[in-house]
Each structure stands twice: as C-alpha cells, then as structure tokens.
Write a structure and sequence with these properties.
330 residues, alpha+beta, four-stranded mixed beta sheet
C-alpha cells in the first residue's frame, strides 16, 4: 500500500528494513540494542552496502577488502549504488579477506557514518530520485565488535537478507500495478472518444483484463512468499518467483496504463509519468530479473536431482529393481 500511494514512502520503509535485517539476523545482543532500537524508532537511518562497480549481480566479484589488524579491521575499497548513501547513520558493509576469492572470505561489518576513512565520494542521480551514493573506504578502521556474524560468512548473510527483501520489492511492484490499474480504469470510463467512452471499446476491455490478471497473479506469488517466510517455510525460489513475476508484470501494467492515457501519460508530473519512472528500477535492484531466473532454475534442477537419486543407504546391488531381478532368477 505504501508504493500504491508514493514510491518514496515505500523506499524509506524498505531501506530501513534492508539496512537493519542483517543485524537482526546475525547481530549480537549488544549490536541489536545499539542499532536496531534507534532505527526502529526512526532516530537512525540504515543502509546496506553490498554492490560495487564490478560486483552487482556477481557478489563473489566484490573487491572491497577487510584486513585484520590486531583486534580491529581496516577496510579499503568502494561501494556504489548504495541507497541511503550519504544520509545513513549506519551501514552494513560487506568486504573480503585479502587473497580470498569468490564467495569465500566475505564478512559483514557495521560501519558508523562518522567513522574516519569512510567518505561519500559521489551522489548518484537516477530517473526515480532517491538518496543514492558511492562510498569510499580508505584505511577505514572498525573495531572487532563491529563484525557482524561469523568471519567469512558474509555472503550467506547477504543472501539471507536479500531473500527477505526480494519479496518486499515484489510487494512494491504490486502496489505500482494496482495504482496503474486504478488510474487506467478511471481514465477509460471518463475519456470520451468517437461518441463513446474509451471503456466501451473491446480493445480497452481486453487490455484491462490482461492488466488485472497480471496484477492478481503477482499478488498471489508475493503473498505466498511472505506467508512462507512467516511460517518458517520460505525459500529462495519463492522470493525469486515473487520478485520476478511482480516486477515484470508491473512494468507491463504501468506501460499499458500509460499507453491508455495517450499523450497525457508522458506529461511531466502526471501520475502515469511518475509511475513509469518509479517502476523501472524494480527489475534491477535486489537482484535483476536474469538473476532470479537463475535462482529459480537451479533450485528446480536441484530438487529434481534429489528426487531422482537412489537412497544413499542402498548400493546399486541393493536397489529395489536389482533385488526384484535377483528374486526372479532360479
């Protein structure tokens, strides 16, 4: 409902959650008390710093380094496309051990905004404006108590966090779809054309039908993913399907609604023009559509392999088929 009424409402809510979820998942009691309480009360703004210029979808390619120095860590590197960058009070930052490769050796750290060596090196403007920046870490020293979770387990923590918020991105997309459908039906009923209203034409009715189906299909996938998460049954596949379907459908629904508005839909400041700008980024952040396809496909194949594999306790000679053959021999 937040996205239905304004993209920035949803952004503020979602980013506060994304920036604190990792602390809620793996933080110590002291870390939770220090960071979650002020964030929950709205006194602190939180941020999640994972992406880099060459490490977006490929998290294993990140190059920001965390070097152990006595009881502390020294961070060097850069993070970009960081929402709430420059206004956050705290950042959950992912960095790797020197000489480590791939997803191994990545750890998470809580870095306070005023920590020496942390700089906001660039403000980034995008089509749907919100606070976005590049962060630079130069000999940024953080105490060992700022390590979040176990050393080297940062990749898993990042993925667990994104699994939660991919569903919330799907929910935002659903809000955009519902607002676009509402605007389209209202415009179709009011717009006069050839002695009728736009709603009287079968082409319009068919398009509205398609938009409604896409919106409701998105809702079911988003609600299933959210319910599964709350019930402790959630999976990466559920979240990926919800995020992928809802964002792709939202793009199509918003585009169809704008087309129905004609030239009015591209007028600066019109609700359809705003929705058209707001919806586009959802297919990219928290894992692009292409990444969601990989997650879903790999999960399906893993399940299929597990179902087709013989029980681990049986050798080939002990399999039911072989036993049946042996029983038929004289």
């Amino acid at each position: 409902r937040l996205a239905q009424h304004g993209a920035l409402f949803d952004f503020a809510f979602a980013m506060q959650g994304l920036g604190t979820a990792a602390i809620a998942l793996d933080g110590t009691a002291a870390q939770r008390a220090r960071y979650l309480t002020p964030a929950r009360e709205g006194r602190h703004v939180a941020a999640f710093a994972l992406s880099e210029a060459q490490a977006g979808s490929d998290v294993g390619a990140l190059s920001c380094v965390a070097r152990r120095d006595g009881d502390a860590y020294v961070l060097d590197g850069e993070k970009t496309w960081i929402s709430n960058g420059g206004i956050a009070d705290q950042y959950v930052v992912f960095a790797r051990e020197p000489e480590s490769a791939g997803t191994k050796g990545i750890s998470a750290f809580i870095v306070d905004a005023g920590t020496p060596g942390l700089h906001i090196s660039e403000r980034i403007d995008v089509v749907s404006p919100h606070p976005l920046a590049t962060l630079t870490f130069s000999a940024c020293r953080v105490g060992g108590g700022q390590l979040l979770g176990e050393p080297g387990q940062g990749f898993k923590l990042a993925m667990r966090t994104l699994d939660i918020f991919r569903t919330s991105v799907g929910a935002a997309a659903l809000g955009f779809s519902r607002r676009a459908l509402h605007e389209a039906t209202g415009h179709a009923l009011a717009r006069k054309m050839f002695g009728k209203t736009l709603a009287d034409f079968q082409l319009t009715q068919a398009k509205l039908s398609q938009m409604a189906i896409q919106t409701d299909a998105s809702a079911l996938l988003v609600y299933r993913a959210a319910w599964a998460r709350d019930a402790g049954l959630g999976s990466s596949r559920d979240a990926a399907m919800a995020k992928l379907a809802a964002t792709e459908h939202a793009q199509q629904v918003v585009d169809a609604a704008l087309q129905m508005h004609g030239g009015l839909g591209v007028r600066t400041g019109h609700i359809m023009e705003q929705l058209y700008r707001d919806v586009r980024a959802l297919r990219i952040y928290e894992g692009a559509t292409e990444v969601q396809h990989l997650i879903i496909g790999r999960d399906l194949l893993r399940d299929a392999r597990e179902r087709s594999a013989p029980p681990a306790s049986l050798s080939i000679s002990q399999s039911p088929n072989r036993a049946a053959i042996n029983q038929e021999q004289p």
